[in-house]
Design a protein that fits this description.
The structure is a homodimer. Chain A is α/β, with parallel strands linked by helices. Chain A has 3 domains: 4-47, no CATH class; 59-158 and 292-318, Rossmann fold, CATH 3.40.50.2300; 160-290, Response regulator (Rossmann fold). Chain A is built from 12 helices and 12 strands. At the A-B interface, helix 4, helix 5, strand 2 and helix 6 of A face helix 4, helix 5, strand 2 and helix 6 of B. Chain A binds a DNA duplex through helix 2 and helix 4. Chains A, B: Pfam families: LacI, Peripla_BP_3.
DNA sequence: TTGGCTATGTAAAGCGCTTTACCAACGATA
DNA sequence: TATCGTTGGTAAAGCGCTTTACATAGCCAA
């Protein structure tokens, strides 16, 4: 690899001149420019980003810390983040942490310490304060999708409550009165809000939420299946289930099938997320669509404006949408 | 951020001593070690990786260049690569290129130029020679999943031919004689090999491959649907379709449905990849499973051994597996 | 003729680290 | 006593770039 100095020597000017020329910090006469350009071409020079970063302290790169890149939701988010960042001339380094606290901390350290200008953080855990401590006071972080308590950086979320409200309304309008909710980890922002939207819709329709019909555990297929078994084993099972993620919904489908029942004939189901597979499952899943692309883009835009010294909104809520497919039907009349 | 020199000053030693101590290049008496450790703790020192990289020329990081991180196949691959790399103390930078040649080239440049020790490259395009040129002679690259013609770096592939051979055998054993194949881009390694396995199975069973029953286009859902329409609009349509990817298979399902037919009653279908959604669709898709985790891990291991100066096998083939689900049935008897 | 301006640069320091010398002090050895 | 090896370090250069401060040459106005 050729260096700046070699180019300068070849062109018969000083390294300073070449550097400033390349960074548009000097006006040179055509002849000099031509000599430099020729030298660059001849030596196939490309600047060493590491050196530049060390020198300037800027990297023109951002990091995306994500719990699990194999999860389509985060993968799509990552794709959107990349798209938007590239459009602004930024590189993106994606890391996935497996959802482990120490991995998250390491990732943030590694990223934030030295080689990126900013950080977009998504998590799906309840923080014990260590993340909050790490992120406190940083001016180059934005939180995406899920909150970290006690952190004051700009945040981009969807309107979780509105989503579950609409999902619940939809079930109620289809005639359901006995509706259960299966959600992710207790105390996670999205879970609390989705539960709140559910409660509001139920309340407005003067329906009671039965104790034991709100099951909070994990955003996983397995939990969805397990919770479904609990629900269906009860004396009087619900006629509809609101799953707080499509993964959970898949588990519900499995659980319902294992109980010898069918969706939507016996049990109606609404999911949340509208992951790519939601339209492909049997039956196609009615679910709440999150605007994944918009979330990623907005997070990048807010981060870049932060880096520019501006102050983006502390919290942005993106609208969700009810995607009606075929997993909801009127309740089965038993008598 | 504290620097090495500040730590040294605090501990009353030279920066050299601290650096060598941290890199295990010197043996210091306990007292000195304690002073340095105390200084590090007090100043919350963490080394600046950028500076270290610039100085040593090593980064303890590898890059994964992938066409589309939102594609579950590549996302799972990425997750496996990360897992294995982290286990060896390496960081991974993931970039997705959108499958555009120039983006791939830029990514390789950016990555390879300055900030990673090695590169794992996956692509899903047919190279026009530019990638090959860029990668030629490099000793720190491994190719994963798909080939680039003319490149001599170590490669990790699955046994594509064996996969489609088994898929085709399965269809034949179920009684099918009229089998069509829908594949990805002509001239892609995987496509050629999958076609070869198909041909071999057909030949062994003395079945002819009808002209017009091998459709090569793209590894996309849309192409799968379009190709299916072509197939089903013909006077005498096939009774089974071998889709060379699960994405294509999803498109086939859609196409079949749009024709008012059903799988597997009217048309049998086998996919390829066993993406997460394959088990979730209606009907659950019989497909060829690729050992995604093993692929990612092996690619990392080969890359690291390359970096260590060893010579991994030029080409490794990983075994595939037929996952029998419910998209294949004996052919519908028409007469 | 002088002073000052503009155009066209350059020298040198510094980013934070590693590494290659080198060195001083001390005890052991010949 | 001279030498040697070991222990416990240090000084300084260098990785490739940016940036601040300064320099020179030419030209114009006063």
């Amino acid at each position: 690899m050729a260096t700046l100095s070699e180019v300068a020597a070849e062109a018969g000017v000083s390294p300073t001149a070449v550097s400033r020329y390349l960074n548009h910090r000097i006006e040179l006469p055509q002849a000099t420019r031509d000599r430099i350009d020729a030298a660059i071409a001849k030596l196939d020079y490309r600047p060493n980003l590491l050196a530049r970063r060390l020198s300037t302290g800027k990297s023109e790169a951002i990091a995306l810390v994500t719990p699990d890149i194999a999860n389509p939701f985060f993968a799509e988010l990552a794709a959107a983040v990349e798209r938007q960042a590239h459009a602004s001339g930024y590189s993106v380094y994606i890391t996935s942490t497996g959802g482990h606290a120490d991995a998250e901390i390491n990732a943030i350290r590694r990223m934030a310490d030295s080689h990126v200008d900013g950080l977009i953080m998504t998590t799906n855990r309840v923080d014990d304060g260590s993340l909050a401590g790490l992120l406190a006071g940083r001016e180059n972080v934005v939180l995406l999708d899920e909150d970290i308590a006690g952190v004051t950086v700009p945040r981009v979320f969807v309107d979780n409550a509105e989503g579950s409200y609409r999902a619940t309304r939809h079930l109620i309008e289809m005639g359901h009165r006995s509706i259960a909710l299966i959600g992710g980890p207790h105390r996670l922002l999205s879970v609390g809000e989705r539960l709140a939207g559910f409660s509001r819709a139920m309340g407005e329709a003067s329906l009671t939420i039965r104790p034991g019909w709100v099951l909070l555990g994990e955003y996983t297929r397995d939990y969805g299946a397990a919770a479904t078994h609990v629900l269906l084993d009860a004396a009087e099972p619900p006629t509809a289930i609101l799953a707080c993620s499509d993964y959970i919904a898949i588990g519900v489908m499995q659980g319902v099938r294992e109980h010898g029942l069918s969706i939507p004939k016996d049990i109606s189901l609404v999911g949340f997320d509208d992951m790519a597979f939601a339209a492909l499952v049997d039956p196609p899943l009615t679910t709440i669509r999150q605007p994944v692309a918009a979330m990623g883009e907005l997070a990048v835009r807010h981060l870049l404006s932060l880096l520019d010294g501006h102050v983006p909104p502390a919290e942005t809520r993106l609208p969700v949408e009810l995607m009606i497919r075929q997993s909801v039907a009127p309740p089965f009349k038993q008598g």
